[in-house]
Amino acid sequence: MKVKKLIAVTAAIAMTAAIAVPVLAEEESEKTFYYVAAGLGQPYSIDMIKGVQYAAEKYGVKVIAQGANDWDADTTCAALEQVIPSNPDGIITAAWDAAMNPGILKAQEAGIPIIVVEAESGETGDLYIGLDNVDAGRETADKLIELAGDSGKLLVIGNWGSTNIDQKFEGLKEVLADTGWEIVGDQDGECDAAVSLQAAKDLLSANPDVDAFIGLDSACGGGIAGAMEELGYEPGSITVVCADREDAMLDYIKDGYIQASLTNRTAAMTDLAVALLVNATDYGFGDVPVSADNEASNISVWPLAIYTGNVVIDQDNVDNFYHDSLGDYGADYWQG
Questions:
Q1: At 18, is the secondary structure helix, strand, or coil?
Q2: Could you give the CA distance from residue 295 to residue 276 in angstroms, rounded to a whole number?
Q3: Which helix (H) or strand (E) holds 64?
Q4: Helices (H), the chain
Q5: Quick one: DSSP state of residue 96?
Q6: Which of 54, 134, 197, 211 has the fewest CB atoms within 10 Å, measured from its CB?
């Protein structure tokens, strides 16, 4: 008798729970988001795309990639402008160039949720997710000082003109201004392996007594280490600190030419962007009661920014960062 009563009560609770829990995402048609960026075909972008693909599969949403395979800003801006009239459920974009600003504003005016990742150019959409790039530059300087002391001659390569790289250089110089480090040369590597290699060779040839070398974008590490190798520098003969990651750079970390690279939590950044767009479109994130009437109060519930912070890659953990070790995701949800 007690068993029968227990079964009856359990069934009643289960039925009540089934009635009380609303079905939200399951009743929605498949959401379509766009990922609009330059560099879609570049090694650096693999991490960002992995995060989008992982999230698309996890949340069952479709993500369509548009933009440029290279770093062409005009093509990327045109792609963003073309996406807006289709009124997608949301847009994720990376604003390496301030030319993206008009398109970002236009998407907001059209009521399309838009999240800017990786690099901000003055217009952060509804939200910016990525590094505080000035602070990332400060962290790079701190890592240099940790590894090589507080004085010496330094060379720097970066993709000048890219918003995030310029900001990293600003933070780097801010910290080094209070030390004995002197930047004796810098060049634009254009986030290109061949250009970075030649720039590093030119700088090393002109400054043979240099103590350290910093690369502020993903292609710089391979360029700096490759130049050292070609010019006969032994691994560790100068201190090399880089940013981001590409597999070619990781090989040089293993070989001892590069002591550390500071990289964004890249896949987590784009995964979070998809998660927040799902929340906004399926679960009423915009209606969170910050006020009784957010629209009338002229309140956006989005945070101003989410800073992801760097992680450090060195010889102890480098094997975990190769792209082939990260897995494949989202084949049925990603349209590249």
A1: helix
A2: 19
A3: strand 62-67
A4: 2-20, 45-59, 73-83, 101-109, 133-148, 163-176, 193-206, 220-231, 247-255, 266-282
A5: S
A6: 134
d(CA 245, CA 336): 22
Q: For residue 258, which of 206, 318, 209 has the smallest C-alpha distance?
A: 318
Tell me what pLDDT residue 95 has. 85
CA angle 6, 11, 17 (to 5 degrees): 125
Structure tokens at 152: 């010496």
- Residue 286 has what DSSP assignment? G
Pair of tokens at residue 11: 């069934």
Residue 96 near residue 164 (C-beta atoms within 8 A): yes
Residue 215 in tokens? 């690369």
What's the CA gap between 295 and 285, in Å, rounded?
Answer: 13
Closest CA to 176 of 215, 149, 208: 149
CA dist., res. 306 & res. 106, Å (int): 22
* Residue 195 per-residue DSSP state: H
Dihedral, 288, 290, 291, 296 alpha carbons, nearest 10: -70
User: For residue 52, what are its two tokens?
Assistant: 């989008």
* 187-196 pLDDT, tens digit each: 999 999 999 9
Q: What is the pTM of this model?
A: 0.85
- Strand 310-313 vs strand 260-264: parallel, antiparallel, or unpaired? antiparallel
The answer to whether 225 touches 249, Cβ cutoff 8 Å, is: yes
> Cα separations (Å) of 45 from 102, 279, 336?
23, 25, 12
Instruction: Give Dmax (Cα) for the chain.
Output: 92
Half-sphere exposure of 222 (CA within 13 A, CB side): 17
Report the 10 Å Cβ neighbour count for 325.
8
286-303 residue pLDDT tens? 889 999 998 899 988 899
- 314 vs 328: CA distance, rounded Å: 24
Report how far apart the first and last C-alpha atoms of the chain are (Å, whole number).
61
* pLDDT above 80: residue 7: no
**Cβ atoms of 260 and 242 closer than 8 Å:** yes
Q: Look at the block and give the residue holding tokens 């045109």.
A: 78
**The tokens 């990786």 sit on which residue?**
118
